[in-house]
Amino acid sequence: MGGGWNTIVGGLMLYFFTTYGGVSVGESATILFVARIVDAVASLLIGPATDNFYRTRLGRRFGRRHFFLLVGVPALLVVFPLLWVSGGGFWYYLVVYLAVEIVMAFILIPWETLPTEMTDDYTQRTKLSSTRMFLSATGTFVVFFVPAMVKETGNPHAFTITGTIFAVLFGAAVLTTYLTTWERELTPELVAELDARPRLTAREAVATTLRDFGSTFRNASFRKHLTIYLFSFTGKDVYASALTFFTVYAVTIPDGEQMGFILQTLSIVGLPVTVVAGFLMVRKGPRFLWATSYSLILLSLVATGAIYLLRPGAVVVLLVVVNVVYQAGRALLEFTPWNVFPFIPDVDRVMTGKDRAGIYAAVMTFGRKSTGALATLLVGWLLELGGFVSPGSDGEPVAQTAGALHTVVLVTVLAPAVLILVAFVVSRLFRLDAASHAVLRAEIDRLEAGGAKADAAPEARAVAEQLTGRPYDELWPAEGADAKAAVLV
């Protein structure tokens, strides 16, 4: 569901609103931007809320993370199909899309913490995350396969049927996750640690949350990881949003809309790629995967631009080949950050002595939604600025000016290439991998057992400082150590 939903937002919604919703490309981008920003702000409170939900009777019965998954299922089944009604207009789509985004945040933020909750071991977390991303790649494929097949039937309500199918599939995925995953056991030690956190009023909670969010940027590994994540995902969002416009308007292909969906269904190549990536994550580490991913994507973008400029024969075949390569790179792009993320809270733990996985998940989600909103706004704004004219109520493509066609190509090729290049450069500076995490985790275990900071091994000091970006003497603060000692007593 996670991969599927983000693919829908990045690759389908702008085209659906513009072509079948009765709104202009600029208004469509505004809907996606406003709703995602409002939802991103709301998401700031969900992560910390899940961290503290163990204090409630519902949290103790269903799990502080799992409760949110459980209530998200019926909400998803109700609101999601409403998004896919044709001809709704600006205000209808804005309200419904905002409701869907909030439901998604209710589910995705606690879900993102589960690998950290389920095990502390690097290899086990990688296996869990690899399995998760394998299924996510399936969701990415389904997002475009289903509308392509349903539209093939000629049913006038194809998108409404598609939305209903998505709602059932996503609801089943969330329910399966609820039934088959677990959280860290609420031992007396963990409860004592969590209870040591002060109870706050709503205003104090907001202020504390914002302060906590700001504190995550003291974590050097997280700063780099967030930069890589946001720039690369925004780049692939821009490409996905623009690709169908490219096939419909920029190159001469019969039934370009269907072709755009089919090219996106080539994400199925992400399934075997994700399996291989799981092994490479352990053996080679994230820097190798990022380098491979970004190289494949940049090569594909250059080839896409060449197809437009040179207009060779067999355009369809060339686009298929290029997008097979692109989708292999995209699968690695999506796989790697979410396999790295479960280890980021451990870097924070040696800095603060606290379990703050929910806060980091909330910051990641806030950043993702904010930049995802900017990606669709950028695509819509640039297309409108370039003179793009939206179709009429019948959804049939209209003739575009040469300037509008050039704009479609620039948005499809150049904009994502720039974003991917930034992520590529920063990824070369990232140092958190299996070896460094093992050293860090051993040092955390030593400190939690009451070990003195003065007795830290030189390698542990060096690794902790490299990953956190802070002097070792500033790590594992006295209040964190004192609180842990009190719990142990």
Task: Describe the protein in words.
This is MFS transporter. Keywords: Membrane, Transmembrane, Transmembrane helix. Pfam families: MFS_2 (PF13347). InterPro entries: MFS_2, MFS_trans_sf. The chain has 2 domains: 2-345 and 357-432, MFS general substrate transporter like domains (Growth Hormone, Chain: A, Up-down Bundle), CATH 1.20.1250.20; 439-488, no CATH class. Helices cover 77% and strands 0% of the residues. The protein has 22 helices and no strands. The radius of gyration is 23 Å and the shape is globular. The two termini are 43 Å apart. Mean pLDDT is 84; it is low at 479-489.
Question: TL;DR?
Answer:
The chain is mostly helical and 489 residues long. The chain contains 22 helices and no strands. It is globular, with a radius of gyration of 23 Å.
Strand content: under 5%
Q: Structural class per helix/strand content? A: mainly alpha
The name of the CATH topology of the largest domain is Growth Hormone, Chain: A
Q: Which segments are poorly predicted (pLDDT under 50) over 5 or more consecutive residues?
A: 479-489
Helix content: over 70%
- CATH evolutionary superfamily of the largest domain: MFS general substrate transporter like domains
GO molecular function: symporter activity
Organism: Xylanimonas protaetiae
InterPro entries: MFS_2 (IPR039672), MFS_trans_sf (IPR036259)
Transmembrane segments: 67-84, 90-111, 132-150, 156-179, 228-249, 261-281, 288-308, 314-333, 359-383, 403-426
